[in-house]
């Protein structure tokens, strides 16, 4: 099996790089073990919410130049980031994902707990606020289904009430959801979302909620409308003459699953090969070059390419793995940045920046991977596997994945 580029990992970074290359006619294969962080996504992509020293950021572009090496943004440069930001939104639109947001002004979106959090781009069907205290309504009905435990209506109400929004909590019982409820382990957001793929079930929901929403300005519902596209939510909105605010549930995230599916399908429509459920286990490396990779499903059959991109994620996706006293990268045994003193890995204050979050592979400024201090000429690393940033503390996870993917893909396109 021979490709122009083989990408290891089909999360946000791998898919963005794959789509960018495939759209320009390069033959790519993405090999991906399974679920990615997108399945847990809030429906928003963060670019930069805080500097490493804790300074709050409202205008990410205005602060980019304050980031030093080895932060991935410092390697890419603010000019390129501004261009990639526009191009990413357009690419997502072509894939069927509509986003709103601005690189020069963060906005706020709701977390599953009802608090608001700074971010860059949010799915168009979510409610966003320009300021953390600028709520568009004075009264809302928060609706849930009996037995659905992944949507915390009371916490959401507590948060909204801090901002003088009056909340009315209601449960609506619908026969097609009660059917799922007979098996409590099935009572998950993705299964509920599947029932709302039928318009008649949305009609039944609208009828069931109407007694509760007469005297409120908006209705707050779990984000369970639209697992394959945004059509169910648009249909719901057309049937209710109220503002509809969807709030992401506890995982799995229906909007995240939808985004991942839309990106995979778009990549395949562009001619890409997506190997889901397969894992790259090892590679042939000669001197400073990857010659082939081998996967679990294809055993000794070589997969070869001119270039390879490692987008296998951080600890969460096992792109890097912690031993008691070290951190390693399991496919190529790349050089990894970590603190050799384990007691420095974490802070007992859970709200403090956690050092382990900045561990990851070390690269050159153009994201070539490094192995035993030697630069591998045809292997790049992108996304959350990169060291030099702390996605949680700096609020930059989505942005680092997107920008590093666009940057590496562009460099590959320039080279041939
Ligand atoms: C739970 C969680 C929620 C997050 N939510 C947000 C959010 O809402 N907004 C935001 O901006 N950022 C969020 N982040 C930050 C997040 O890291 C990035 O936004 C981004 O999605 C990471 O993408 P990635 O492609 O680098 O890695 P991942 O999404 O982790 O994807 C890596 C993929 O590689 C596959 N893989 C791993 N090893 C192999 C192998 N050897 N062979 C083949 N495949 C392999 C994995 O199965 C996985 O599919 C979140 C992070 C986590 C952990």
Q: Based on the structure given, which CATH architecture of the largest domain is correct?
A: 3-Layer(bba) Sandwich
Domain count: the total is 2
Strand order of the largest sheet: 13-2-1-16-22-21
Spans of 5+ residues with little confidence (pLDDT < 50)?
Answer: none
CATH C-level class of the largest domain: Alpha Beta
Specify the helix fraction band.
25-40%
Number of helices: 12
User: What distance lies between the first and last C-alpha atoms, to the nearest angstrom?
Assistant: 20 Å
Number of strands: 22
- Mean pLDDT, rounded to whole units? 96
Q: Which ligands occur here?
A: flavin-adenine dinucleotide
Shape field: globular
Radius of gyration in whole Å, from Cα?
Answer: 22 Å
Strand content: 15-25%
State the CATH topology of the largest domain.
FAD/NAD(P)-binding domain
Outline the biggest β-sheet. 6 strands, mixed
CATH superfamily assignment of the largest domain? FAD/NAD(P)-binding domain
Helix and strand content put the structural class at: alpha/beta
Write the layout of secondary structure elements.
Layout: E1 2-8, H1 12-23, E2 28-32, E3 44-45, H2 60-63, H3 72-76, H4 78-94, E4 99-101, E5 107-110, E6 116-119, E7 121-123, E8 128-129, E9 139-144, H5 153-162, E10 166-171, H6 175-181, H7 189-195, H8 199-209, E11 218-222, H9 231-239, E12 243-247, H10 254-269, E13 273-276, E14 280-286, E15 289-295, E16 304-310, E17 321-322, E18 327-328, E19 336-337, E20 360-361, E21 368-371, E22 374-381, H11 391-394, H12 397-415
Parallel strand pairs: 1-2, 1-16, 2-13, 9-10, 9-11, 11-12, 16-22
Antiparallel strand pairs: 3-7, 4-7, 5-6, 5-8, 14-15, 17-18, 19-20, 21-22
Helix pairs in contact: 1-10, 1-12, 4-12, 8-9
Residues 8-14, 31-38, 40-42, 44-46, 279-280, 311-313, 316-319, 331, 383-384, 391, 397-398, 401 line the site of flavin-adenine dinucleotide (FAD).
């Amino acid at each position: 099996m021979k490709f122009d580029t083989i990408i290891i990992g089909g999360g946000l970074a791998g898919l963005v790089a794959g789509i960018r290359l495939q759209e320009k006619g390069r033959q790519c294969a993405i090999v991906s073990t399974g679920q990615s962080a997108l399945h847990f996504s809030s429906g928003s992509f963060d670019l930069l919410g805080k500097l490493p020293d804790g300074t709050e950021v409202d205008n990410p572009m205005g602060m980019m130049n304050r980031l030093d090496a080895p932060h991935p943004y410092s390697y890419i440069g603010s000019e390129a980031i501004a261009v990639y930001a526009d191009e990413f939104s357009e690419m997502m639109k072509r894939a069927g994902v509509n986003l709103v947001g601005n690189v020069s002004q963060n906005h706020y979106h709701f977390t599953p707990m009802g608090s608001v959090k700074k971010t860059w781009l949010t799915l168009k069907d979510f409610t966003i606020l320009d300021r953390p205290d600028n709520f568009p309504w004075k009264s809302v009905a928060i609706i849930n289904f009996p037995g659905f435990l992944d949507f915390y209506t009371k916490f959401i109400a507590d948060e909204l009430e801090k901002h003088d929004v009056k909340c009315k909590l209601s449960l609506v019982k619908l026969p097609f959801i009660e059917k799922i409820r007979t098996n409590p382990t099935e009572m998950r957001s993705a299964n509920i979302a599947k029932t709302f793929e039928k318009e008649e079930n949305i009609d039944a929901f609208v009828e069931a909620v109407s007694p509760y929403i007469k005297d409120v300005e908006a209705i707050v519902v779990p984000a369970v409308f639209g697992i394959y596209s945004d059509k169910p939510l648009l249909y719901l909105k057309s049937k209710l003459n109220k503002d509809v605010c969807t709030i992401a549930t506890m995982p799995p995230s229906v909007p995240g699953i939808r985004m991942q599916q839309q990106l995979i399908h778009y990549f395949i429509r562009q001619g890409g090969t997506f190997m889901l459920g397969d894992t790259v286990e090892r590679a042939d490396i000669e001197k400073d070059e990857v010659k082939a990779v081998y996967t679990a499903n294809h055993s000794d059959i070589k997969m070869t390419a001119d270039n390879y991109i490692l987008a296998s994620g951080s600890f969460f996706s096992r792109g890097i793995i912690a031993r008691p006293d070290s951190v390693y990268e399991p496919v190529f045994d790349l050089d990894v940045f970590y603190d050799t003193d384990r007691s420095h890995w974490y802070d007992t204050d859970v709200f403090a920046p956690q050092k382990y979050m900045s561990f990851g592979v070390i690269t050159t400024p153009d994201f070539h991977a490094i192995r035993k201090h030697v630069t591998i000429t045809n292997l790049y690393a992108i996304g959350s596997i990169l060291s030099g940033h702390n996605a949680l503390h700096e609020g930059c996870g989505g942005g680092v994945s997107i920008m590093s993917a666009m940057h590496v893909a562009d460099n590959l396109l320039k080279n041939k």
